Amino acid sequence: MCETAFINRFLQPGLLAARLVCCVVSPVALASNRKSVTQEVAIKHLGCCLKAGVCSEVPSSPAQHGPRPPGGRAGVRHPNIICDCCKKHGLRGMRWKCRVCLDYDLCTQCYMHNKHELAHAFDRYETAHSRPVTLSPRQGLLRIPLRGIFQGAKVVRGPDWEWGSQDGGEGKPGRVVDIRGWDVETGRSVASVTWADGTTNVYRVGHKGKVDLKCVGEAAGGFYYKDHLPRLGKPAELQRRVSADGQPFQHGDKVKCLLDTDVLREMQEGHGGWNPRMAEFIGQTGTVHRITDRGDVRVQFNHETRWTFHPGALTKALGRVGKVVKVFGDGNLRVAVAGQRWTFSPSCLVAYRPEEDANLDVAERARENKSSLSVALDKLRAQKSDPEHPGRLVVEVALGNMARALDLLRRRPEQVDTKNQGRTALQVAAYLGQVDLVRLLLQARAGVDLPDDEGNTALHYAALGNQPEVGRVLLNAGCRADAINSTQSTALHVAVQRGFLEVVRALCEHGCDVNLPDAHSDTPLHAAISAGTGASGIVEVLTEVPNIDVTATNSQGFTLLHHASLKGHSLAVRKILARARQLVDAKKEDGFTALHLAALNNHREVAQILIREGRCDVNVRNRKLQSPLHLAVQQAHVGLVPLLVDAGCSVNAEDEEGDTALHVALQRHQLLPLVADGAGGDPGPLQLMSRVRKCPVMAQGARRSGGGADGTKFYVILQPAPLGSLGEGWCPWGGERWGLGSQSSPSRVPLLPVPPGFRKRCPCLLF
Locate the ZZ-type domain: which residues (predicted)? Predict the structure, then answer.
């Protein structure tokens, strides 16, 4: 039976629970109880409900009935909201707030009984923390009568009956004399029933999810506005359930907190609170355990540890990497992941680029280093150790106590390099930018190149803390400028990854090696290019170093020019070409040049620089014999196609499968206009048509169809269909022949020979 028919007969406003097990569902109850029940499941139970005659209220358990089975909390409340009509405090179920009057709220009963101005629009709140849903005014809307277990209804014992013969025996009817709540636990969840022998008792019609009664003679219970109720199975959206990058959370999501300790501490106020131990989990991957009623996120990090986080403090972690093993005709993909195969929609996946993942890994590690250091500093400042403790010097430096540090160095000079929380006093002073303390420690013969547990020296700490002046002091004191840590990163790598321009400048001025690779074979310039246009100043500084090696290649086989073209970093492309134009046509192992990468990733400005300033070969081929034009067409980068054609890209060049760029366009799974007006300043496809007249297929088709010159539109159709207005006859499946026509030319479509290579792949190609 349809949902409307069910509501007409059984809905009561303000219900607090819905029990599907006994075939009882109410949209109001469902919304109040916040159950995410699919409509298919609900409707299945609705049919049983109507057939059995069970009402829509779910019963309650009175005290005189003895002990009850355990049940969960039913219903929701708006604890600080008062109905401005009936004056009930703490609205149950949905809240209805007037959008015209200041601070005016109604409960469900008053709203459905036409209290307040009918011409005023209202907002509906399904829970105290859900987003409001704006509704139209009630004036003129259809009100539907409610019938079910209301006062006066005739009932018999129901599916959860456990009260013996209080009703006089099975099948004996009673009459409902009242509907009310059970103490303060639930509202409108129990019914008082008078039986034939005159006895009256209270029975559950929703309390703790139990239904003691079945309706055999419904009673009227007022009215409701169907259009103003929430949809069954679509729970309200919470106000605070999104991550730092704007993505909603769900149970099982992998998340990380990447904030500094001080920022997280402030954000946690009112969102689960702050515990110093939470800092230990910054940068670690956890799993979303649940979403709280307030919209905060409960995250589990191991079997014992769970913390509640402000949702804005979390970022979704990357998913697993898989391999596409099959592409289905409808565009879905078969992907092998961790030994299993799954079918995905393409919209659920993103291309995995190893070089990007490597750069992300390095950047994430830098964030984690800073987070762990912040934790260590907090612990140092909180220490109450003996002044004679060997690590006390590190504590005083962390607190910035120059006098106490000097006193300790005079009394215990041998403790100058003693570690506390894994760091020396010089490393802590360098990170905090305490120049005077750094000079004091250097005078006390502190180990300037002494590494921490991860291989970081004081210079690494100066870079991590964005302290260029400390860096200069350390370099002038003779520290190793190119010392590497456990990830083979120098201080210059660290400064570039953090985006600290002045530190980079100071290191370059003192002769740091700009060509040293890290663990991924990325030079500092590779890292600066990965950082995007925000690091343009760093790119300029690095490319001005006289001895920079612009031919350096990382572990993915990308030269600096390849990498800049991949990322769309036009400034880096210009700087590299100015120093080594001979690299413009250099190929990776797969045959990709810088122009291939720019075309594939739709970097039009970069492609323009490579063509005009680098004078690259626009017809260069990769190992699959694809030209940059093939790749631009394959990805539907319409802004790049005119640029490449104008530059002299051959429209007749064939890849290893014998396909030209036009063949690639015809294989796209959509209705693709080949001739239309241009947009965004790019030459339009109509102009493109005039530039590819040398293509035999295009030229012959345009002449024979009579289209093209008069501005008519041509299309590629990838499904077999009658030619209809495009001509007579049927275009057979399998590419046996293909036709040319136009919207303004409804005459017979001339048939042309199938181009080489089409018959094996294209289902039905018509343009």
Answer: 78-130
